[in-house]
Task: structure prediction
Amino acid sequence: MTLIDHLPVFLIAIPILASLLILVAGWWDRRFCYPISLVTILSQFGAAVIILMQVMREGTVRYYLGGWAPPLGIELAIDSFNGFILATILLLSVATVIYARKSVEHEIGPEKTIAFYVLFQLLVTGLVGMTITGDIFNLYVFLEISSIAAYALIASARKPRSYLASFNYLILGSIAGGFILIGTGNLYAATGALNMLDIARLLPASFELATVHAGFLFLVIGYSIKAAFFPLHIWLPDAYAESPSAVTILISTVMSKVSVYALFRIIFTIFTTAYIVDVFPVTGFILFIATVAMIAGAVIAIAQSDLKRMLAYSSISQIGYIMFALGVANQIALEGGILHILGHAVMKGCLFMVAGLIIYRVGTSRLSDLGGIAKVMPISCAAFALAGASMIGIPPTIGFMSKYYLVLGALEAGHWVYAAILLLGSLLAVGYIWRFIEIAYFRDGHDEGSGARTLEAPASMLAPMVALALLCLLLGIFVEGLMEIVGPAASLLLGGA
Amino acid sequence: MGDLNLLPVVAIAVPLLASVLILLVGRYENIREGVTITAAVAMLGAVLAMLPSVLSGTRITVSLLPMVPGGDFALRVDAFGMVFALTAAVLWLLNSFYAIGYMRAQREHAQTRFYFCFAVAIAAAVGIAFSENLLTLFIFYEILTIITYPLVVHIETPEAMKAGRKYLAYLLIGGVFLLAALVLTYVLTGTTTFVPGGFLAGSGSAIVLQVLFLLFMVGFVKAAWMPLHGWLPAAMIAPTPVSAFLHAVAVVTAGVFGIVRIAGWVYGMDLMASLGLGTLLALIASFTIITASLFALTEDNLKLRLAYSTVSQLSYILLGVSMLSVAGMTGAMVHIPIHAFLKITLFFVAGAIIVSTGKEYISEMKGIGRNMPVTALMFAAAAIGICGLPPLSGIISKIYLAVGAVEGGMPVLLLVLIASAVLNAAYFFPVIYTMMLERPDDEASLVTVSEPPLIMLIPIILTVAISILIFFYPAMPFMDLIDIAIAEITGSVIP
Amino acid sequence: MIGSFYELFFARYNYWMAIILMLIGLYALIAKQNLVKKLIGLNIFQTAIFLFYISLGEVRGGTAPIYLPEGVDALYVNPLPHVLILTAIVVGVSVTAVGLSLIVRIHEEYGVIDEADLLQELRRR
Result:
């Protein structure tokens, strides 16, 4: 096998080795951490793009770990769906790691830098592993890897509240992990297999068993806790608000999305639409809860007085949108949901980067202290305006595109009321986005100081933020290109080729 | 020719590029102003360059990007779109000069933001004019909403922020309804491309199509039909160049333009007649015309009086559409440029008065006509035009509307037109009287009053001159374009 | 009657034990105020799950899945759950370690590790 064939396992092996390397090299000299981390993630991103292109050309890429074929061995399976998610994760990781350099110095402090980069690398490993694995227990293992890294990272801010936030997340996340383990056990008990495709093949014979129903419920609830699907979202606001900015960016854009990916995988690939439509009709219920999540998240966000907390509740609302796609479960709605996974990652990443820059510059993210900040941070506020416009759904940004598909999908499935609620609910985003715009641009407070023409923040923090903001617009304009990947991904989930 | 296909793109791209340039050179005021003027000239040139082909009957189509199921991002320059685009392009040029004069005379802050938003707004307006389908129209429509917000809240006082929130609330909610209508159209018919004569016939039950029309109407809340007109008086808190151009020409015209497009190119006049939508539209339009005129009577703030006048005048266009007759449609379409040129004059004068005297209330404007004779005369001329008297062009649209009412079988609308004409006179003539004939309470206060700077005065004179020109030479180019457009949607031979 | 009672409870005693332990663990997790007791509850919960899994793999009359001189024909219990649970135990240990270190830091910072006292401290600050 050539080098290219081994790329999938490199996606996991290299970062694990890199994290050890960072540990050793950092012990030697702290300044080695960042370059090693950057190079590793960049090469992972490159590998992901190559794999994605290969998947689009040839179909699903399968890799047997250690050469052992399933059902004995664990396989990595990358199809158009998780290839897309993989590219999204790594894109955001690249942006975050570039951003993290100065942010970490400021918020975490030099003595914990090595630990940060090691854990960051492990977090990315876990997320990537979750995305590309084809084995359901392996999914759990990588979930726990990423979770443990996340618990530690969230607690690394120099604030006492971050310990509490992390502890709460730890408790809830471990309960979720426990449920997922039970669910996996149930599936194993019913089918005797752990490979996702094998289970999908063997499961229909046992569809009526209570074991399978119980397994389904445990898995869905477990992953919903991790995905912060209302009302199981209680850990999220604290975790997002109290963690260091670089960590918030990664966990808000990517971590919850990977759990949503896991949900999609389990529901569509393993249990298949036959189960959720005929045997255990749960789509209507999920649709209802998702709509509640959309509205409730946005309403609570409007009431917040802290920027990061506001964005955290906004994330809860946006996860509702993606789960809405799951609830409708037709081709077009799923396309919208998958597109929203990328879109929200880019939008929310940019917004949290702005929040991080504000904390870097001003030291606080309380909205009442941010009056007139657009005068001292024009680029950041402009990026916020652009990403915010995407969140509201102003065309031709990517936020509009995914909402359009969701509405179209809902209408085609006959869910008139839900489509109407989705449309009106998207207006709620105006409530919280516009609060910040008004405060930043049209209130008094910060004035231009001596007029020194210095950049408002280090370039290494501005560049990824501006890039993500522009991506919100560009991805929307060139959405047709994205649909070439998303379309097959959606039909794959629904049982097509 | 191959080059012709580029021109619609150029017409929209030029102001967009200009907006970026304005941001970059913002510090250098004269260069920045130069960018605006150059872009306005260039855009007018591009639009004019397409005029001959459109007059000969060709439609220029440029498909830019495939986008979503429901429509590509595509432009089409046809006769009706040209009417709007030409109006907007000419008036942008004139308004830019006026705005430079106004902003500098008032020493306004945040001028770079002002010109940036203006440039993007005009690009969006022309984009609406040249949209090939509902999706492209929607994209430009929402961009227009967002980009005009900073212009509305320009002065950044608490009242301005409140007004801005109201503005945004109305327009964004309208946008959601428009999106709903757009998606529903796609679900019903599988396309959203504008087709002369409409494409909705037979795609759904009567009640569905009627509800769809209501969704469209709420979506086009920019047409300020009552009772959803509240955003327009609120937006008057903006600096006068904004009120003049956007809220007399670009934003509101985009609203009525949309409704005419829906009537002619999505529904088609026959379908609208069979669904009873003509009657519905006539009711809404008549209500708006009369009620808004009554509101105008009670307003002492000149800009607010003009705002209500705009609300009323816009519904003339809707009234014309509701008649579902050739003359009615013609009247509606021709009222778009006619009203634009006349109303912008009135707003220009209001702004000139603010610059010269600082006064906003009519009761305080006694006798300023003595010291500002040209300005006051232009106001009188434009007011007479709106009332429908020659030699200004207002009479043309009135005649068509009257003929259309009879032709369409709704002679009762003649009463509406007559009542409205009386009301127009009732709220305009007192203003002229106050300005020109009344004695000021305090003679000394008038000493400092004089004509506004030339850079503001000349656009005012030019807009009146163009209105008179339209009266004497209506065919060129507006009536010719409108004839082609009417022929398109009624299916008769293009002259 | 007796038969189904036997079926429900005694034949499946392993599942019942797991469920009872799980519920004890969850109860401790949710109801106990002391943070360390919460962690202990978490451990009980996880251990219950491990028992559930391992009992799944039980083969009556089988021996531990270590290679015997008789070769592969001897009767072994299913080794797969054992392997999975080894991984899960490691996960559980790591989570407990992180959790305990967090509790240490919380104690250093606030001086209390009881949830009620903690809320008081937070309100004070």
